[in-house]
Design a protein that fits this description.
The protein has 198 residues and is an all-alpha fold. The protein has six helices and no strands. The model has no long low-confidence stretch (mean pLDDT 81).
């Protein structure tokens, strides 16, 4: 009887080993999926956060353009109260502010589904639209040009409307991206936007 039990154990050992191996592989795949979902969530949060910070950076650029123009700016630079705007410092400042956004965008390209890449691209396009609205402005003519030279650069109604539309487009792109992330990571849908902005 002892020999039958030992023979049964020997015959069952490979089956037990195969079952244990399958169990380990299954558990590892579940862990890998959870880690991939967590990494995707972090990348998505980075893209959403950095796109909002980018809009704030663009607004700061607009304020800088308004404050650093006009006769008072020329006087302050001439009297050495303030340094002139250095294009390279401005470039470095913009690059420092945009690098995390582009890192998150690149991570989305590498690790996300095609639908999320498309929505991530839409967020970046909307960020570009905000920067365009801040930086594009028709040159002032006539009395407006004289006023701008004396007082400094202001925001005209057309530019303000373009900026409002660009910020709204960014908000919608961010909302659509977040909704897709929630769907793909298995989160319940949520109201991500207040109604007034739609």
């Amino acid at each position: 009887m002892n020999w039958l039990f030992v023979a049964g154990q020997i015959a069952a050992a490979p089956l037990v080993a195969v079952a244990a191996f399958i169990g380990v592989v299954y558990q590892q795949r579940r862990i890998d999926r959870r880690e991939a979902t967590a990494a995707q969530s972090r990348t998505s949060v980075d893209l959403l956060t950095q796109s909002l910070l980018f809009a704030q950076l663009a607004h700061a650029l607009l304020l800088t353009a308004q404050v650093r123009t006009g006769l008072s700016e020329g006087r302050d630079v001439l009297l050495r109260r303030r340094r002139p705007v250095d294009p390279m410092e401005l470039h470095d400042w913009l690059q420092q502010g945009t690098r995390p956004l582009f890192d998150a965008w690149s991570a989305t390209w590498v690790s996300s589904s095609p639908a999320m890449v498309t929505r991530g691209n839409a967020v970046i396009d909307a960020c570009t639209g905000v920067l365009d609205a801040v930086s594009e402005r028709a040159p002032a003519r006539g009395p407006a040009r004289l006023r701008e030279a004396i007082v400094g650069r202001g925001v005209d109604k057309d530019q303000a409307e373009r900026l409002r539309a660009a910020i709204h487009a960014l908000a919608v792109a961010r909302r659509d991206y977040a909704a897709l992330v929630r769907k793909e990571t298995g989160k319940d849908t949520a109201e991500l936007f207040f109604r007034a902005a739609e």
